[in-house]
Amino acid sequence: MLESEVDMNDHDEETLASLGRDNDQLMAKNHALAKALSRATQELAKAKAQLNQLAGPPMTFATMVRVRSAKTDEQGVQHASAEIAAGTRRLIVPVAANLQASRLEPGRTVLLNENMVVVSQLDTDTLGAVRTVRQTFDDGRLLVADGGGNATLVRVVGTLVGETVNVGDRVNVDPSMRFALSLVPPENDGDLVLEEVPDVTFADIGGLDEQIERIRDAVQMPFQHRELFERYDLKPPKGVLLYGPPGNGKTLIAKAVANALAEGTEAGRGVFLSVKGPELLNKFVGESERLIRMIFKRARERAADGRPVIVFIDEMDSLLRTRGTGVSSDVETTIVPQFLTELDGVESLDNVMVIGASNRIDMIDPAVLRPGRLDVKIRVDRPGAQQATQIIRHYLTDKLPLSANVDAKALIGVLVNDIYAQDEHRHLCDICDDHGQWRPVYLADVVSGAVLKNIVDRAKTYAVKLSITTGQAAAIGINLLAKAVDEEYCETRDALLDADPEQWSRINGLDAGRVTGIRPVA
Ligand code: ADP
Hints:
Elements: H1 2-55, E1 60-72, E2 78-86, E3 89-95, E4 109-112, E5 118-121, E6 129-136, E7 141-145, E8 151-156, E9 170-173, E10 179-184, E11 194-196, H2 209-224, H3 226-231, E12 239-243, H4 250-262, E13 271-276, H5 277-283, H6 288-303, E14 309-314, H7 316-319, H8 332-345, E15 352-358, E16 376-379, H9 385-392, H10 408-419, E17 427-433, E18 438-442, H11 443-446, H12 449-470, H13 478-497, H14 501-508, E19 515-520
Parallel strand pairs: 8-10, 12-15, 12-16, 13-14, 14-15
Antiparallel strand pairs: 1-2, 1-4, 2-3, 4-5, 6-7, 6-9, 7-8, 9-10, 11-13, 17-18, 17-19
The structure holds adenosine-5'-diphosphate.
């Protein structure tokens, strides 16, 4: 009995232990299940929220125009309506009762719910369209225009109300194109206008005596004898146009003028402000007017203490092209008048003078060249052999190490003969004019002051190289100069191989008229 009791007890204990273990296992399972359940509940809630979000009605952005009416009833509930603009639509919509109508400001972005009720007002937009101010009105409106010159009337709102807005400033306009929201800081245009105090004088320029005399009469005389001009009721010109192919001294002349004007006056040295027409046009589409204004403003500032200032506009034809020619989206229709306004205003300051340079005088708007404007037109052509001699004299002098038994004069004589030779070894190509006539082109036909200087510089470079290898100063002589001309000739000839006739006639402006074909030399 005792034994079986013991047995029994043993058995019971064993069962109990196993039950306990089962229980623990079940508890753990239960726990895990409960955990999974609560996770599933969470997931479900999240999914529900996401579903709700996905199913939520869209809100619409709109621009607040004005509050139409706002009343509060006996219960203290506000009933207000507002005029808003969304895209091209203008609507009158209710304002949510919890949104204070008096806080709604014109030009601000508002949110509309699916029932088209204004439910909230957002911050002023800092992104969006930029327009240039063309005209300001006392009633707070502005006439603004885009790059293509399309004008719109907008109203100044928000923080812009207290600010001074000037013609030429840029403003950020709201999406409905009704409000100017803020001023956009001007782009950095400092590098577009080069300013220098040049040290070039007329004496540094070769072969252009005639042109220099004309420009002196036209510009320097009225400047230095102002009283006499007044006495005889003569108006000095506002500017001069120098025209002709590139590299022949137009810039040099303009710089020398800046210098010459200051001569014999107390004014100090002249200032030379220069801009390149195409750069102005490209970098600031729709903004060139602002830049033109900026240039003249700068000129006036520099001239304020009586110093003569030359505003030099290179490649003027690209900027002040005849209006209505349909090229480059007709920006000239706005730039030309802007330029004329500024030029006509130069009168009040007679020490500012505009000098334009161009290779295409025929492209410049005639209004620019009318009497009282840039009415002095001076042609600066390619140098002939005689002028070439005078130019080279500035670069090839007796001060340089020259070959024994020759002086600079003799070397220049030989050099010029070589450059201007009309024979096969200086024959560049043949061109065909629009009558179908072919004719040869020689190096002399495309030579410029800049090319002449370059030839001499080449010879000087050979001499420097020789000096380095031999350890003693190498002399410049006929051989080095001939080598330099040869190299210039070859480079020019090779460049012509891929020239296009159209471009050729534009750049070289030979008297042949339009070039219809180019044939390289065999
Ligand atoms: P443009 O304005 O007509 O394109 P530049 O006046 O800029 O030409 O001339 C370019 C360079 O060529 C000058 O800096 C100068 O070194 C040289 N050069 C051109 N013409 C002459 C000249 N008549 N006398 C002396 N140097 C000249």
